[in-house]
Design brief:
Layout (H helix, E strand, L loop, with lengths): L1 E5 L5 E6 L7 H13 L2 E3 L3 E4 L10 E5 L5 E6 H8 L2 E2 L4
Parallel strand pairs: 4-7
Antiparallel strand pairs: 1-2, 1-5, 3-4, 5-6
Length: about 90
Amino acid sequence: MRAEFVRMIGTVLGEIPWPMHDVSPADLRKHAALMLNGFYDHDEFESWPKREFFQKAPEEVRIVRDDGAIMIKYDLLDLIKDTGRRVVGNR
């Protein structure tokens, strides 16, 4: 399995091996949320890409099985819904 870091248009920016196999869908979603949130800074109202990523910040994290099946997707819309913060381009 692997975690893919993706732009909303589908461009894969990178991937890392995903060593956890027996994880519930809810836990997979939490891990994906933490990974995506790691590319963004935030205050109580807004999130924005960290300077070191800026235009290369992924907008979606996917956990993908070895056969290519997507186990979970977590994107900026999920982040907005879960945190209540809006996402801005930069700060």
